[in-house]
Design brief:
By secondary structure, the protein is an alpha/beta fold. A seven-stranded mixed β-sheet has the order 5-4-19-18-17-6-7, with helices on one face. Strands 25-29-26-28-27-32 form a six-stranded mixed beta barrel. Bound molecules: ligand MGD (2 copies), iron/sulfur cluster and molybdenum atom.
């Protein structure tokens, strides 16, 4: 007998937190639609939401542990799997030391409640320094800047899109990505509303993206030169007397230092590098300063480049100088119902810079993790401390990290690898054992991370829709059991972290959420501040299945600041010092020609050998590398193409649709060419997350639409050396006909 009913939940696939309305009949999904009564998303969804059904029914998805053998994968019991995994970890650490085990956490770790709550204690139980994650191919520069300026790596300023009058956006394409470090379901409507109230959206991007088309203004910029652009804006504010931090001046140090730094970067000095006219940069600075409220925001395009740290810092600086930080319509801070910043402060996880250095290249650990770009060399380079065993948790670094081809080879040489994952893909195919978990509709959800990054304060709990099949485990159960066995299987040792709260050790996720709500800012007994009267508990959230709106963001930075003197550090020393590196790369006022050195050299060669710079892109129907097995997301024309400007195509005698070879220092790929004026001359663009043509993976749909991986071209040696973030953007490539 089956029974139809309607289920409400938050989509956990990307950062937008859309409310879903799902009609089901027993195990059968009748429809997945946007939940119009969700106060945050108001009915918005994207095409990925309906793919939750594909994932749920996907015959390729793993549901029980498997072991790789000479003749293929074989099913094993959970007990056998845990024994073998823990036995191998202990064997390798016993013989070669703790750091011989490495761990990589992928993006879904921040989207899955069980993973977020149970990862930290699990990883501590491994006692290895060799920790890596997708952070260092993503938002690391934002965390770095937040840690040094505001005292906590998670104090992310969020653009107040619903109230701003001037939105200057660099290196982000929210119309495809649905917004990032800016959780704002239905972002297109929010941006249109900004324009309707007379506001202006300005996009800075080497490609005329979907968002750029919507914008009031779009400027092409040469990849990697955004820090120069931002400094020229600051320069203009300073020389034109437009620096007006307002109330921020009362608790900001370092204003003079940044003003002096910008002196060397006149708009004329940098225009030749950025490709944006000096007068245009001046005008943008004036308009930002004059706007009733305004915000500067930058994402992947300005994070994953050589000066990512500088970019994220200078963006914050601009918001301070114009009085827009922590002010309505500017860049604001959330007060989420589960106070992740407060809780991680209690557990001592505010951030850190350079406490350890990687063995081979000596790269600094930030936030306790080494750059993902160093993972392969740590596996491949023999010597004391070499990584011999790897654990990947919800990650696909073969497709997601620079020089993925090298990592692919490195993983194949490991003594032992275990993957906690739901698929046999490009990365997990190297595992000896895969431990699969429940996912999506089988899990309960509370968005710990994305409520922190949302443009309004809201709270919502989603129960699991479907019971897991017999024998399946949740991610938190898998991590909890591994940790228990690694710690000797005995009783919990509360002494491991003296004086620190280790609340994660015993309770299941929903109990932890309940506690965190009760002691959170809207609970009856807030750890900080006075009760608001909301008296949030899990039971109360369960009675509000569409979610609860807790109001617009408010100026709260003063009470949130965690710097030693509780003031904004506008000119942190490592960031100030890094400006010298920028000057070295882009000399100003030296009488030199204002074209990039690399490009100038390239011009002496025949067109076919001239270098172009490669940038990435996303499209609405992808989610990094892992959703191409959903048939509805891969239907239609080929999307893994190389975009090139007509002038560059003509110079190389390349025709639209033709398959071209793209070659970089580290590798080469072949893919179809798309000729379009939507990319800047000298720049080519290809999406990331493709490359399912590798052997021995089990993704039948994705394998039929394989594409190629951009990260077979990106270079593990190209980094923002300050933060260790991968510099995907601006990879030098040569494109030739096949
Ligand atoms: N060139 C280039 N490279 C990039 C980027 C770029 O813009 N350009 N973007 C970077 C960014 S921003 C990111 S975040 C990274 C992402 O990098 P990764 O996190 O390494 O890659 P994903 O594609 O997100 O892989 C997610 C993995 O988790 C598994 N998975 C999915 N759901 C679950 C679940 O519920 N439980 C478990 N246990 N596993 C699950 C999937 O099968 C897959 O193996 O890629 C980065 N790489
Ligand atoms: N549909 C979909 N949504 C996603 C994802 C997905 O894979 N697919 N991934 C999710 C994840 S993990 C993340 S982190 C977010 C990312 O969210 P966004 O940052 O909005 O993502 P992108 O679309 O990669 O936008 C980056 C833009 O930077 C531009 N760019 C490249 N180099 C430069 C440069 O040097 N300077 C400037 N100014 N711009 C540059 C690119 O042309 C591109 O338009 O998206 C999330 N949402
Ligand atoms: S925009 Fe993101 S959260 Fe919203 S439905 Fe699409 S994938 Fe889910
Ligand atoms: Mo990301």
């Amino acid at each position: 007998m089956s029974e139809s009913h309607t289920h409400y939940r938050t989509c956990n696939l990307c950062e937008a937190m859309c409310g879903l309305e799902i009609k089901v009949d027993g195990q059968h999904i009748l429809s997945i639609k946007g939940d119009k009564d969700d106060p945050f998303s108001r009915g918005h969804i994207c095409p990925k939401a309906t793919a939750l059904e594909d994932i749920y029914h996907d015959p390729d998805r793993l549901k029980y542990p498997v072991r790789r053998t000479a003749t293929g994968w074989e099913r094993i019991s959970w007990d056998e799997a845990f024994d073998e995994v823990v036995g191998n970890i202990q064997r390798i650490q016993g013989a070669h030391g703790r750091n011989a085990i490495g761990v990589y956490l992928g993006n879904p770790n921040v989207h899955n409640l069980g993973l977020i709550l149970y990862n930290a204690p699990f990883i501590r139980s491994l006692k290895t320094k060799n920790r890596f994650s997708a952070t260092s191919v993503d938002q690391l520069p934002s965390q770095y800047a937040a840690y040094l300026m505001f005292g906590h790596q998670l104090l992310f300023p969020v653009p107040d899109v619903d109230r701003t009058h001037y939105f200057l956006m660099l290196g982000a394409n929210p119309l495809a990505s649905n917004g990032s470090l800016m959780t704002a379901a239905g972002i297109e409507n929010r941006l249109k509303a900004l324009q309707k109230r007379g506001g202006k959206l300005v996009v800075i991007d080497p490609r005329r993206t979907e968002t750029a088309v919507l914008a009031n203004e779009h400027h092409f910029i040469r990849p990697g030169t955004d820090a120069l652009f931002l400094l020229a804006l600051i320069h203009t504010l300073v020389v034109e007397g437009l620096v007006k931090p307002g109330r921020l001046a009362e608790f900001t140090d370092g204003l003079e230092t940044v003003e002096q730094l910008a002196a060397d970067f006149t708009p004329e000095d940098v225009a030749g590098y950025t490709g944006i006219a000096a007068e245009e940069m001046r005008r943008m600075a004036r308009e930002l300063a004059a706007a009733e409220s305004g915000v500067v925001y930058g994402r992947i395009g300005v994070s994953t480049q050589k000066f990512g740290g500088l970019c994220q810092w200078l963006i914050n600086v601009l918001n301070v100088l114009t009085g827009n930080l922590d002010a309505p319509g500017g860049a604001m801070f959330t007060r989420p119902a589960v106070d992740v910043v407060g809780l991680t402060t209690l557990t001592g996880q505010t951030g850190s810079v350079g406490r350890a250095h990687s063995r081979v290249r000596g790269l600094p650990a930030v936030g306790g993790e080494f750059p993902a770009a160093a993972m392969a060399e740590e596996i491949l380079t023999p010597g004391e401390g070499q990584i011999r065993g790897m654990i990947t948790v919800a990650g696909n670094p073969v497709l997601s990290t620079p020089n993925g081809g090298q990592l692919d080879e490195a993983l194949a040489q490991l003594d032992f690898m275990v993957a906690i994952d739901i698929y046999i893909n490009e990365t997990t195919r190297h595992a000896n054992i895969i431990l699969p978990t429940t996912t999506g509709l089988e899990t309960e959800h509370y968005d710990l991370v994305f409520h922190l990054l949302a443009v309004r304060n809201t709270a919502k709990y989603s129960p699991a829709l479907f019971e897991p099949e017999e024998g399946m485990l949740h991610d938190w159960q898998v991590l909890g059991e591994l940790r228990r066995r690694l710690e000797g299987g005995g009783p919990i040792n509360r002494k491991t972290l003296p004086g620190k709260i280790e609340f994660q050790k015993r309770l299941p996720p929903h109990k932890l959420i309940d506690l965190a709500l009760r002691f959170g800012p809207y609970g009856a007994r807030p750890l900080n501040g006075k009760p608001t009267g909301h008296n949030l508990t899990l039971a109360k959230l369960k009675r509000a299945p569409h979610g609860i709106d807790l109001g617009p963001l408010e100026p709260i930075l003063r009470e949130r600041l965690l710097t030693p003197n509780r003031r904004i550090v506008l000119a942190p020393e490592p960031l100030v010092a890094d400006v010298a590196r920028l000057k070295e790369t882009y000399p100003t006022r030296s009488g030199r020609s204002v074209t990039e050195p690399g490009v100038a050299r390239s011009e002496d060669r025949p067109h076919s050998e001239r270098e172009l710079v490669l940038i990435g892109r996303r499209d609405l129907r992808t989610n990094n590398s892992w959703m191409h097995n959903a048939p509805r997301l891969v239907k239609g024309k080929e999307r893994c193409t190389l975009l090139m400007h007509p002038a560059d195509a003509a110079a190389r005698q390349l025709a639209p649709g033709q398959v071209v070879a793209v070659v970089s220092r580290v590798g080469q790929v072949r893919l179809p060419l798309e000729v379009t004026e939507a990319v800047m001359p000298g720049v080519v663009s290809m999406p990331h997350g493709w490359g399912h043509g590798r052997e021995a993976i089990q993704l039948s749909v994705a394998q039929a639409h394989p594409g190629v991986s951009i990260n077979d071209l990106t270079d593990e040696c190209e980094l923002d050396v300050l933060t260790g973030n991968a510099a995907f953007s601006g990879t030098a490539v040569v494109v030739t006909p096949c």
